[in-house]
Amino acid sequence: MTDATASAGRPTRITRGSPADHPSIRRPLIRRPDVLIFLAILALVTIGATVLAQTGHVSTSTVKLLGKTLCLCLAALAMDLVWGYTGILSLGHFAFFGIGGYAIGMWLMWDRTELIVLDTLARNPLPATPLEVQEAIGSQIFGVVGSTEIPWLWAFAGSLPLQLAAAVLVPGIVALIFGWLAFRSRVAGVYLSILTQAGTLALSLWLFQNDSGLRGNNGLSGLQNLPGLDHVPQSTISLWFLWASALALAGAYLLAAWTVAGRFGSVLRGIRDDEARVRFLGYEVEHYKLAIFTGTAMACGIAGALYYPQAGIVNPAEIAPIASIYLAVWVAIGGRGLLYGAVIGAAFVSLLSSWFTGGGAPDIDLGFYEIRWTDWWLVLLGLTFVLVTLFAPKGLGGLVDLWTERRSRRTSDLGPDEGALRAEEERP
Amino acid sequence: MRILLALALLVIPLSALAQQGPVQTLLQTHAEDIADPSRQTIQPVLDDLSASGLPAMTEFLEAWADKGVVRRDADGLFFYGQREGDVYVLRSVEDGAEAGEVGRREATELKPNAGVRRLIGTALVQFQLNDPDPARRRAALDALSRNATPDLLGPLRASIETEENGAIRDRKEELERLITLRFGENQAARLAAIDWLSDKVSLEGRAALNNVLTTRTVVGPPEAGANIARVLVPGTDISEPAAVALLAEAGFEVAQVSRADRDAALIAAIEGESVAGVAVASLNTEDARWAAYETLAQAGAVPPRAAPDAVARLLAETPITAVYDEPDPAITTAAAAALDEVGARVARAQAADLTLDALSLASIYFLAAIGLAITFGVMGVINMAHGEFIMIGAYTGYVVQTIVPDYTVSLIIALPLAFVVAAAAGVVLERLVIRHLLHRPLETLLATFGISVALQQIFKNIFGTQAVPLTSPAWLAGAWSLNDVIGISYIRIAIFVLALGFLALLVWILRRTRLGLEVRAVTQNPGMAASLGIDPDRVGMATFALGSGIAGVAGVAIGLFAQVTSEMGSGYIVQSFMTVVVGGVGSVFGTLVGAGMIGGLQKGIEWLNPSNTLAAQTYMILFIILFIQFRPRGIVAQKGRFVQ
Question: Which chain A residue has its CA at the smallest distance from B275's CA?
């Protein structure tokens, strides 16, 4: 690497509008059809759900399900950036999602407990002292793990701005350190996947301990109750969160579309398709990977911070490695390397999953055996996933492409590793 | 003839005198003392009975102590008697033969008091210790170790000389030392016993030494001549609240006012809006409340609060000491030194035990990971369903066991069958999925994950969510223990042997067979291997079958000591990956070293923090992440296709 490039992080000269760029990408972001259509559908869904909920046609739990699904879509979008566009199969991004949930959950739990405690202590003839309040909160929150002491992790739990910052910054810092260690020593491919999975396992095992300071396997609960807003019904709160989730997803989509459309995105795709070649061209590949890894981890933190107040509880089981793998499954089924593919995949699979496991799907009686979908859904999902990987590497998003390709011929190489799709197409 | 005799005995009790055996004769010489024993008079009688050396005497003494002996009023003879309704059923004291019945009021039950019973027990021990039956001698020693008294020392020592069984003799000598240590007659004997024990690591020996070193806590200056163990310093040896509680128990109390007492006093003193002239609303800090309390105390309304340093001063003034129960300082010093020596020896033994544990864990990881390592090496793909092959092997073992009831036979069938079944499953997976995803390792990883989810759920649907049993044969139960510290179960030894066997097999295949040559060639350079006429597809399939088969065998082995559930594979998969990554891909010895390192690390961390195995795993994974920084390609680095 020459000195000139090392300081800038990339070569000083690069041809803009190279042939690999899509015709549509060069247009202003807001006029690109996929962005417009996505925003329109998102707005339609959100407004429609709001109207239906206000008129009583849709239950609060359905609104919450929708809001949670949007958060999962946001996480899938982040996963798509890091895997579909950069080719880093991280099996730990759901851990960042969980960290975001824990960060916001700490504030929700602390503040609500503090209000309850103050209320109780106000009935004493003497006004409460700070020490009394601390002790009461400690025993309320940590009584389940046999402790009354407040762990140092909770030092800022009383402050919403700080905890909100933590929901973004803690995943960011963890990802930065982990990514720096991993990318610096050129850990890539399946090694990196395994390493992220191990890191996720380590985090979830640590959280499972009672003395981790985060209530062990009890997790944080009662998060659906916003402190000081007991008079607001859950139906209204669920709509607030639906809108917040929708806004976050829309913003993230715009940001992601802008990111992948620019030069930065081109380098990311280059790293995915041939990392060594991009490095030889003089790019600091590690910096790009670190930036996208950290940025998407922060996005996952935001998604988690919006998700868990709707779910009501966050516990270490949520962070188990399998959750992160499911995130990859959603992106793969939706279509990696396509922003809308990730969103479609997450929405489709998670909604379908709750339909099947919730007993919504009718059981099939074969006469000699009855297929109960609550038992067989995972088999169906697993096998579908294998079939998608084998025969439809572009996933559901590829269906959209079939329609658009008639108008604009797309020749981009969307394979995630060793140019998989190109290899697929080149196969006689 | 016998019946006639029995009838005769029944009809003419007096004629029984003529039939008296040696026991009855001896008993009759002390008849009155036996019938009405007292602690003062019984010892000579017992000595006499013991001196006779009659084998039947043991049973008599046992029955006597157990209130199972009656004396027939008519002739004064002793019998074993059992009350049944209105009669005693009699048995002869010579040989326990039936000796008729006697009415409830025609015989007297012998009821020795507790003191006498204890003396009988002591005499009995002497008999039992010299009993011809080794099992009874052992039983007597066990009873002795639980319930040692000083007077048993004599009979025990006497019996050592004549003991022929080596193991029992050793045990007798050990017990003799333990009892001497506790009740020994002089300092020299006890010091000798301590010296002898300092060479041993047995739990019993350590307990005996600790027993010598028991202390009691004395508050205030200890009495003159007390054998002081140490002075307890509050804050280091003993927590301050505990020290204060001890002082309070001994009558040294500080007038401490708890926060609850203070608040109660303040609340009681509320007059309108103020307490002691202070507004209630201003009492919202601890300092303000204490200040208000002081005001109340000065007015005499509440008990005064002790000065802040009162507790510290009291603690400084009143020494708290631990005093040995044992008065002789020479003994306690020697015992403490011996215990230190034993402790060091126990620590070394624990290290050896830990090494054994780590070896056994390492052999499990090796079995679980080796298949993964060689398939990764040859085909460059990660098989996330590898854990499910382990599960398939374990369930194969379970199914075989439901068909073949004999555990040994079923295990012999299950091991090769598990290999075949898992290998077949591996070939199917390779043909249907992995073959089509060549050179796309990330997609292979995810596709095999899909297979893993589906397989887990299918097995859950078939076998249920409950764990199924895979029982090991009786000869694998139990443990091999070297001493009280070092021990390892036979199952783990068997797994170790199994792992060694597969290691040898794999090394042989890779080094000495045509397949091994081809596998090594494909691992190093698939393109070149193919151009030399090796079919990489065929080699890939063979390695996949081999790797999956070994996972199946590992499943049977793991199932023998862990639970067989549909999720058991996922519990090993991350550890297996770690083993492969740490050891280096595609190398048998790399995997071996990796397994050894991870097994050792896990056991080591567990030993450092035994209460928290979850934390141990966390630290281990963090360590491995750091390790990868320094050797990204594992301990035995791959040369060939993966080198960038």
Answer: A126
How many other C-beta atoms are found inside a 10 Å radius of the C-beta of residue A26?
Answer: 11
How many CB pairs lie under 8 A apart between chains A and B? 169
Q: Does A267 have pLDDT greater than 60?
A: yes
Q: CA B543 to CA B202: how far, in whole Å? A: 49
On chain A, the residues whose CB falls within 8 A of the CB of B439 are 418, 420, 423
Strands B87-91, B78-84: pairing kind:
antiparallel
Contact A373, A363 (CB under 8 A): yes
pLDDT computed for residue A21 by the predictor: 45
Q: Kindly report the average pLDDT of chain A as a whole number.
A: 83
Dihedrals phi, psi of B151, to nearest 5 degrees: -70, -10
In a domain, A380, yes or no: no
CB atoms within 10 A of CB A37: 12
How far is CA B206 from each of CA B98, B336, B458, rounded to the nearest angstrom? 49, 11, 53
> Which residues from A are below 8 Å from B443, CB to CB?
389, 393, 416-417, 420
In a domain, A422, yes or no: no
For chain A, what is the domain count? 1
Query: Does residue A386 sit at the B interface (CB-CB below 8 Å)?
Result: yes
B522 and B541 Cβ atoms separated by less than 8 Å: no
In a domain, A403, yes or no: no
Residue B471: the pLDDT is 85
In the block, which residue shows the tokens 């096998």? A383
Q: Which of B150-154, B184-188, B227-231, B349-353 has the highest mean pLDDT?
A: B349-353
Mean pLDDT of B135-157: 77
pTM for the complete prediction?
0.77
Kindly give, in sequence order, each residue whose CB lies less than 8 Å from that of residue B216, ignoring residues fewer than 6 positions away.
B322, B323, B325
> Taking CB atoms and an 8 Å limit, are B632 and A186 in contact across chains?
yes
Chain A nearest-CA distance from B552, in A, is 21
Find all residues with CB under 8 Å of B424, minimum gap 6, and list them. B545
Residues 284-323 of B with CB under 8 A from A: 284-286, 289
CB contact, 8 Å: B442 with chain A?
A: yes
pLDDT band at B82 (very low <50, low <70, confident <90, very high): confident
pLDDT at A338 over 50: yes
The span from the CA of B134 to the CA of A52, in Å, is: 88
Q: Does B203 touch chain A (CB under 8 A)?
A: no
| A426 interaction partners in chain B (CB closer than 8 Å) | none
Residue A260 lies in a domain: yes
Mean per-residue pLDDT of chain B:
81
Q: A42 pLDDT exceeds 90?
A: yes
Give contacts of A 398-427 with B, CB under 8 A.
415-418, 420, 423
- Cα A63 from Cα A237, distance rounded (Å): 10
Using pLDDT thresholds of 50, 70 and 90, give the confidence band for residue B399: very high
**For residue B440, how far is the Cα from the chain centroid?**
49
Give the pLDDT confidence score for residue A26 in this predicted structure: 57
Largest CA distance in chain B: 111
Residue closest to A419 by CA, chosen among B234, B442, B10, B402: B442
| One-letter amino acid for residue B428 of the chain | V
Q: What does the block give as tokens for A171?
A: 């995943």
Give me the domain span that covers residue A173.
3-320
State the Cα–Cα distance between residues B204 and B197, nearest whole angstrom. 10
Query: Do A86 and A292 contact (CB within 8 A), yes or no?
Result: yes
Query: In angstroms, what separates the C-alpha of B216 from chain A's closest C-alpha?
Result: 31
Measured between alpha carbons, how far is residue A390 from residues B447, B542, B595 in Å?
Answer: 8, 22, 33
| B429 at interface of A, judged by CB pairs closer than 8 A | no
Q: How many helices (H) and strands (E) does chain B have?
A: 26, 12
Neighbours of A377 (CB within 10 A): 19
